């Protein structure tokens, strides 16, 4: 996969990035650019994690000239875009009549076929986080139902058209803004940083898309049932230390166990226990890395009575032992 960038404000206007299939990469790579033309101050930061590539634009254009960015991708991609400040509009070059706009404090998920897109930035100051991934990554995180149940997406894909999942975008709430800031301001190094960023990216995708996935879900789940599932998920996040059995959570949601498991996976894209494990591992990483908890203390705080069971679950999910966080 090749993506070409051509910015009207960078001294080195054109940049070419080559990627493996599905943005596959074994190690974290980062790069930052500050070589803007006169009158522009700030930076563009690139981060490439396994299965995802992102760049963060944070700069102030003191001139009256509008900033444009051409992005050419030779294969279809998804773009999860967060506009923290400024406004962005874009269209495929030969279809300028179809314009997509995302205003300040909004985010959206776009399907972009192989094409050349022209992005226009109207405001002087801009902070925009762009996250690229493929359908494989989206299904891995959100479940196949996220795309299967969207007839408009499938039609756009068939016709090689851009598709906007959330119309004019959704509001970046305080929870999402905190996650974005934690992702962009990580102070770890090496494998710890890579693990932290991967877990934060997963959290960001889940919170941004799963919470607002209700518009894409079939009518099998009633509105009242959806609300109960969301409340149950919020309880899970707030009580990771407690025993979270299927029976207990099903009763809380007002479902039988079978209906609860299928409904939860339909909304959050993961089976209940896999979802809980992801949250527990993520919180444990924060406790060990940021608050100097021992492995035993962290495992207890996230609901594991036996530290060995925690270590096995951690190794299976992260690919390395929790002791490496301490080292």
Question: Key terms for this structure?
Answer:
Arc Repressor Mutant, subunit A, 2 domains, 8-stranded antiparallel sheet, 6-stranded antiparallel sheet, alpha+beta, 327 residues, Jelly Rolls, 14 strands
- How many separate helices? 12
* Rough outline: globular
CATH fold type of the largest domain: Jelly Rolls
Beta strand %: 25-35%
Q: Please give the largest β-sheet.
A: 8 strands, antiparallel
**Topology as a string of helices (H) and strands (E):** EEEEEEEEEEEEHHHEEHHHHHHHHH
**SS content category:** alpha+beta
Name the CATH homologous superfamily of the largest domain.
Jelly Rolls
> Could you estimate the helical fraction of the residues in percent?
40-55%
For the secondary structure, the number of strands is 14
At the first level of CATH, the class of the largest domain is Mainly Beta
CATH-defined architecture of the largest domain: Sandwich
- List low-confidence stretches: 213-219
Q: What separation lies between the terminal Cα atoms?
A: 36 Å
Count of domain modules: 2
Which radius of gyration do the C-alpha atoms yield?
21 Å
Average predicted local confidence, pLDDT? 86
InterPro entries: Homeodomain-like_sf, HTH_AraC, HTH_AraC-typ_CS, PchR_regulatory_protein
Protein name: Helix-turn-helix transcriptional regulator
Domain HTH araC/xylS-type: 230-327
Organism: Polaribacter haliotis
